[in-house]
Write a structure and sequence with these properties.
It is built from 8 helices and 29 strands. The protein is an alpha+beta fold and 485 residues long.
């Protein structure tokens, strides 16, 4: 739901993660669990199962693309509704100089190539919400065609967009104030009526500050400081219950209005993607990556129960940007939009953050779901269990979608803020060392990765990545957690 301060990475060019896979931000997400539990018989058995024989049979045919490898996580469906044909209602306040720009973008983007590639593979197979996300609806509720000035083709009152004088209770707002205000206008008939496909996009002026209590930490989060936007829904039970909305504050960064506008467009694309794949996030979650994929969720240190489709790609850079360039936007017809986690792409060994043009590759660690003591022994994948003073060997399968121009180089460690080279990683925490049976690799290679833990290491979880580097500005990370017993 919430787009946290990590979205600011693109704004300032901060190196939060590498080019390729790196998770982003969100409110319903799970981080790595620090624990002093020394493990039990079940986790030790699972660790032994994850360890592998370093024999010659670990290699595959290098000309079979992609080589078989541990699966890339797919988003979980949790039973909630989706907006199969989203109807965006653009809400602005009198005097907003970008009113027409916001209206045009909101109605263009739901039928764009970006929308089709990034979102239309999200499908529910059965049940009351069965169906797939398709193109949005860019016509008014009375059937008239939408026009950039907000009118309809037949001049009727079935408008899509709203402009009104600022009438919220002050310039410092809580999310509850916005819900009450939105619900009152809908029930009064001031706004187009809500339905199961409607999402209200509310663009606030620079003079408005919006806060909410983070559902995970309980701490107060403030717009343009800890977050750039979020989406939510009005709780069932009220006349406007179930209404989906996106809160879009206009943040200024001292660089120029064009920059501020494009940053808000980037945020808007993030919230629209999550708003259609998980519109009832607070009460009836639909698509999110759930607990069970802890290393992927922990890349941003986020905590909670899952992560939505845009959160999971919030810090993915394109290969054209400098190393660690943060959230490099995708250009959709001149608009900066975010990349979106696609389960279809993940299942095909493509970069799950779509759209994505370059050949995708990685070094996927062979792990098995294991009970995590700190989480009530719930199963999670991506852990390597190592006792203090010992080493464990695990195979990583190198894969690529197609032939690469030359071999990859492997590294291991923690992504480093401000790094200007993909090989510049922080060392694994607590003097843990990682070594490879070979560092120069290509599709089909099985690499033995040795994790060694010193005898005085602290028990608990240590997050890191296996990094595959093709070029200075082209590399991908495979996350993992070393649990020290």
């Amino acid at each position: 739901m919430r787009s946290s301060w990590l979205v600011l990475a693109w704004v300032f060019g901060v190196a939060l993660a590498g080019v390729g896979l790196a998770v982003g931000c969100g409110s319903s997400s799970a981080g790595a669990r620090a624990t002093n539990d020394g493990g039990d018989a079940s986790t030790e058995a699972a660790a032994e199962e994850a360890a592998v024989d370093a024999g010659p049979d670990i290699n595959q045919d290098p000309d079979a693309y992609p080589a078989k490898h541990h699966p890339i996580p797919q988003l979980d469906y949790n039973g909630g509704p989706i907006l199969q044909h989203a109807r965006i209602v653009t809400v602005t306040f009198t005097g907003n100089v970008h009113r027409d720009g916001f209206r045009y973008f909101d109605h263009f983007i739901v039928t764009s190539g970006w929308w089709k590639q990034a979102l239309e593979s999200n499908c529910i197979d059965a049940g009351p919400y069965a169906g797939c996300i398709g193109d949005g609806n860019d016509v008014a509720s009375d059937g008239g065609a939408w026009r950039p000035d907000g009118s309809t083709a037949d001049g009727g009152d079935g408008y899509l967009d709203v402009e009104l004088a600022y009438d919220l209770p002050g310039s410092v707002l809580m999310d509850s104030d916005i819900q009450t205000w939105l619900g009152n206008h809908i029930t009064a008939g001031d706004f187009p009526p809500t339905d199961s496909q409607t999402l209200y996009a509310i663009y606030f002026p620079t003079t408005t500050s919006i806060s909410y209590a983070d559902p995970n930490s309980g701490q107060l989060q403030t717009s343009c400081q800890q977050f750039l936007g979020y989406h939510g829904s009005i709780a069932p039970g009220s006349p406007a219950g179930g209404t989906a909305y996106a809160v879009l504050p206009y943040c200024t960064f001292g660089i120029g209005d064009d920059f501020d506008y494009q940053q808000l467009i980037l945020t808007t694309s993030h919230e629209f993607a999550e708003g259609v794949t998980d519109p009832q996030v607070d009460t009836h979650t639909a698509f999110a990556l759930n607990v069970g994929n802890d290393p992927w969720l922990a890349q941003q240190g986020i905590a909670g129960a899952g992560a939505e489709c845009a959160d999971m790609c919030a810090n993915v850079s394109s290969p054209s940007v400098f190393v660690g360039g943060g959230d490099e936007p995708y250009d959709e017809s001149g608009y900066n939009v975010t990349r979106i986690w696609s389960s279809l792409a993940a299942s095909l060994s493509m970069n799950p953050c779509q759209p994505w043009t370059p050949t995708y590759y990685g070094a996927a660690l062979r792990t098995v779901p294991q009970p995590i003591p700190a989480d009530g022994n719930n199963l999670s994948d991506g852990y390597v269990f190592v006792k203090r003073g010992q080493s464990v060997d695990v195979v990583a399968d190198v894969f690529s979608q197609a032939a690469l121009p030359h071999d990859l180089l492997l590294y291991a460690g923690v992504p480093k803020l401000g790094a200007m080279s993909p090989s510049d990683l922080d060392a694994p925490p607590d003097l843990i060392t990682v070594s490879f049976s070979q560092q120069q690799v290509h599709n089909g290679d099985g690499v033995v990765v040795t994790f060694t833990v010193p005898s005085k290491a602290t028990t608990g979880d240590n997050w890191m990545v296996l990094r595959s580097v093709l070029e200075q500005t082209d590399y991908n990370d495979w996350p993992l957690i070393v649990h020290v017993q």
